[in-house]
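#lab-general

N.A. 3:47 PM
ok so I finally got the sequence cleaned up, no stray characters, all 411 residues accounted for. can someone with queue access submit it? mine expired

B.Y. 3:52 PM
send it over

N.A. 3:53 PM
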Amino acid sequence: MLALENVKVLSFGTGAVVPDAGKILGELGADVIKLESKDNLDFVRTLAPDFNNIGPFNESNRSKRSFGVNLKAEKGLELVSQLVKIADIILENFRGGVMKSLRLDYDSVRKLNPQIIYVSSQGFGSGGPYSDYQAYGPMLSAASGVLSIWAQPDDPYPVGSNAPHPDFMASKHVVIAAIAALDYRCGTGKGQFIDMAQTEVAASLAGEYYLDYTFNGRITKPMGNRSPYAAPHSCYQCKGEDEWCAIAVFTDEEWQSFCDAIGNPSWTKEPKFADLLSRLENVDELDERVGEWTAKLDAHVVMETLQAVGVAAGEVQRAPDTIADPQLKWDNAVIELDHPVSGKRLYPGIPYRMSGASPMESTPAPLLGQHTEEICRDLLKMSDEEIKRLLDEGIIDNPETAKGAGGGMFG
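B.Y. 4:20 PM
back already:
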């Protein structure tokens, strides 16, 4: 048995936060139903001509079912209201005001289902001066302050990353909050409204820098790969083209192990490298010396040499390297799924195991409306004749009627 079997989740998700959270809940055994419309697509479905064949969408929307429904039609809203009555959790991350305009905000939903757990996650939360602002992951890195320290010291501007880190951190917080609310409901019988600002999640990643300012009056500047607590601590270029290895030495004991591993050259015995404080004061020269050693060796050799003496070191890998990595293979960290349109593709596996539970598996992301008819039949107890009528009227959609879909997010 899986931990969340018999839990029903309605996902009004777009982009990354709620879709990724729904994927995790689905992998834990919940029946996650993605509510979507062919006229107002999840914007990630619009990133390529075929809305059923988009890599980012097919990754974040695994392990759920798709219910194609027109929420702007009264009958469509009625169908969703019936699903609300039997749901345990609702997840949504539409722009502020959208769910209220659809009459699916928390105050409306709890009248149908007082025990509902309702998780709302906007970029800036549901209140305050920015609550209606549009937000995307990389932008939230800037708004939270994280981006200001994400660069090398001599970069002319904050470099950051095009990976939406706040989105994927926020999705994990959504899962934690939803499971905690389920536990709370088991003890009290009461549902909950959970308001989670994605920018607040991003801000939580930089807490030590807020403390540094409030205690010491310092505004942290970009440090690149360096650390105020370790030296050497960086990515060092190795033999070959664009090959690197990350090395982190925190203690003086680790430093001595590092020196032994590289053969104790004379420079390692100089007083300016004798302890951590001295190494931090002379970090430019230290990095240069370490780089001279790594430049002569393959990155994997550097990693193996240092790991053999207990020094943290890791080869900087790219996608082909990680797919072939023996440890990740042993962990089953990369799995193959056969999507009905995309075909066989590699995806991240589930990064944990649970003893005493059934093996967790991912299922391919759904086609738009792939499960509409079975949800109507099994959960809404509708006849085949009624389902056909609603398909003909454009109230619901299956993959066939959804062909030629277009549009953007709700609102």
